[in-house]
Amino acid sequence: MIRSLLSVLGPAHAAPLRRMIGVMALAAVLQGLAFALLVPVLRALLGPDPAEAWPWLGVFAAVALAQSLAAYAAQVAGYRAGSTLSRGLHHRLGDHITSLPLGFFTGDRLGKLGQLTSGGVINVMQVPAHLLRPLIDAVLTPATVVALMYLFDWRLALAATLSAPVLYLVYQWSGALIQRTDRGRDLVIAEAGGRVVEFAQTQPVLRAFGRTVQGYRLLDEALVAQRNAGRRMITTGVWGLVGFGLVVQAAFTVLLVLGVSLALGGSLGVPELLALLVLAARFVEPLAMAADLGGAIRLGRNALHRMTELLAAPLLPEPAAPRKPGDASIELVDVSFGYDSRPVLTNVSLRVPPRSMTALVGPSGAGKTTVTRLIARFFDVDSGSVRVGGVDVREIAGEQLMSLVSLVFQDVYLFEGSIEENIRVGRPGASEEQVRAAARLARVEEIVERLPGGWSARIGEGGVTLSGGERQRISIARAILKDAPIVLLDEATAALDPENESAVQDALTALTADRTLLVIAHRLQTVVAADRIVVLEAGRVAESGTHEELLTRGGRYAEFWAERNRAHGWRLLPTR
User: Fold this and answer.
1) What interhelical angle do 270-292 and 294-312 show, nearest 10?
2) What is the CATH number of domain 2-312?
């Protein structure tokens, strides 16, 4: 556990933690020495000349004082470590998570991350604050007692030594029971948490279909699974803890029986027997305490194990010698890529010259959004290369690449906060005038004027108080404020009403002026305005060219164009 804790905390916290462990170890050894000194003290007090106990009492008092000071220092250090551990862990986990490729964040992992960064961090905080000292005491104090017991009676000392492997094996067994059930419980807790959020977010759909009374089956099943996992952990953990406690008491009973037998046989005096039995009691006391804390220790160990696994997840590699792009061009050269061994793109090649517009069209699942995410290096390609300004994105520093690219996707996420705070995400150091200018170009001022509180109005988690078109305008204002030379646009007007569509189109015009633009096109007017059109189908480039060229060829694009034109005039008519 200590090795895992050092690994998770990192070098910055390693030295203070080692010092704290050293003080705790010293306190544990001094406690064992103080216990051992009870033997000569009691032997003298119960012997023919009780005055011989005074020198031993002096030594005992000195050792007890030193142990108290060391224990106090260890306790204070433990509390301080626990209080600072949360901040350090969250920072380290946060820094690591932000460097992971976005392909890491699958649905099941998001639930696990939520559980790990909340309950997991609390479990780890308990280790230095409350659990590490009893754990060290449970190892070093009995070891010190047994070692010193050899000075007084080797037979009892040998019996205590032989009981140590049995105690260790039973402790490992009981811990393994808790570890297995805790891992399973974490999975179902993460699942249940995700289902609760899903249930809240999908209330409009559930209510529309009358699913408010009988509940939501997936949520019900997840909550039942969480309850059952909690029961299994309690019942299984109790067996382990009770088993270890029984073995500890059995070890003390063996020492008691052996000591009495030796005393009855005349090879051990009654004063020595009483003193050694006191020492035997002190031998099992830290072990019994470890048994009581065994469940909490295992929970902390499991949390440390999960954090170690997370920190071991491979990061998106940064170039050792970063290169700077020459311009704002985009190029894909024989790119192949897939999610979880499922191929999405196969030998895709395309080029977007600087300050030009290229439209990606094709059916759903053709790989259009994947192309934009590879350019932003959300993932690394399986083969081929993605280049910005003639440089492979893997050779460009991550921060520099992100500074060159603005992304506007159809699914917009806004943070809980004000409109101004959400726009400032694009460039936190921007002046108030720059924020207002970006908002004006994106026609966000109309939203500000409508809301009570204006620029300081809170828009709720995900921007729930705004319409889809209003959220989209704020996201475009964010991209305008960033002022990047490359814009990747998953055209955001397909599902908007005419008024919002007009506002968003005006904002997009401001955003894309004099920039390199790669747009996933849904609207006919966007396709026609492109300098070049690339048709993707089944992860391959089916054809490319200008609008007129592709229509003349009569291929897949011409079919797409004809279908869109036919659908363009559709309208609903009342039945007679």
Assistant:
1) 50
2) 1.20.1560.10
